[in-house]
Amino acid sequence: MNSKTGKVVIIGAGTVGSTFAYALQIRGVIGEIVLIDMDKKLAEGQAMDLSHGVFFTEPVNIHAGDYEDCGGADIVVICAGAKQKPGQSRMELVATNVEICRQIVEKIVEHTSESILLVVANPVDVLTYAALRFSKLPREQVIGSGTVLDSARFRYLLSRHCLLDSRNIHAYVLGEHGDSEVPAWSIATHGGMNILDYCKMCSRGCSPSDHAEISKEVRESAYHIIEAKGATNFAVGLALVRITTAIIRNENSVLTVSTLLDGQYGISGVCLSVPVILNSDGVGRYICPELSGDEVGQLKASAVAIRIVQQQVGL
Ligand code: NAD
Known about the structure:
Blueprint: E1 7-11, H1 15-27, E2 32-36, H2 40-51, E3 61-64, E4 75-78, H3 94-109, E5 116-119, H4 124-135, E6 142-144, H5 148-162, E7 169-170, E8 173-174, E9 182-183, E10 189-190, E11 193-194, H6 195-201, H7 208-229, H8 234-248, E12 253-255, E13 258-262, E14 268-273, E15 276-279, E16 282-286, H9 293-312
Parallel strand pairs: 1-2, 1-4, 2-3, 4-5, 5-6
Antiparallel strand pairs: 7-10, 8-9, 10-11, 12-15, 13-14, 15-16
Helix pairs in contact: 1-8, 3-4, 4-9, 5-7
């Protein structure tokens, strides 16, 4: 018997899509998970493999499907697309993945206008904007995974560096999920204390160069992982579970998903990540904490970097 009602459709059953499905299955908050891929055999194989694990998890109906299965979905997640090769930037994938995004979104909206669209394929900010344009859905309903993963990496590195439980750290990466991202040091807190004040009383005696090193490591993590194993999948799978859960359970969680800005920090007409309240309607309120002047400048530069790529592909 399956008493849970939430339905998530995952388009792209490759490394990221299947890892997300697995993490979602283990989390046990969803009643139905549908996998769609242009490689139907792959989607069927993944669904069968996952289904054989249902005995060990909460009951969940996992199956391969087609676009008509998007009807009634709470969330449709787009994980389909070319992925980065070692050394390649996310932005270099853009032309191929915008076209894939167009084909997929046109098919999704034939079957649903209610679901939240969650874009994961890269470059995620440009593709979120593309999905918004192609779907013509309200902006609250179209989001990208943005810098939720980068913010988790930031917290992990701070936790390791400062010897502090990451659950006691609040820290966000803003802007592009990519090379121009902005770790927002000015609003990071340890146990409720601004991190810059915390550093003054901490015996580890960190210097600005330690901060710069952590920022660099956050930004370059994906390159290192892709160099080592060809893809990133586990942490992003968990980040997607976090976003999905916030939506399905109407959690009003503050997460840095990518969303269309409309004047926040003086930025409009691009999707990028700032802290927003996420619930079952998608993006609720934007939270715009006061940043340092330097960080606002970096955020604007990030928006420019995204807008240039958008214009290059005619968006
Ligand atoms: P993958 O190659 O393992 O899987 C991609 C899947 O998409 C394949 O199974 C392929 O058949 C399918 N696909 C391609 N075109 C399709 C179409 N038109 N319709 C349906 N299915 C189609 O790649 P991956 O490692 O799973 O990565 C997927 C995407 O996610 C990449 O763009 C990657 O850069 C991105 N990614 C994003 C994040 C993030 O934080 N946003 C993190 C990791 C990866």
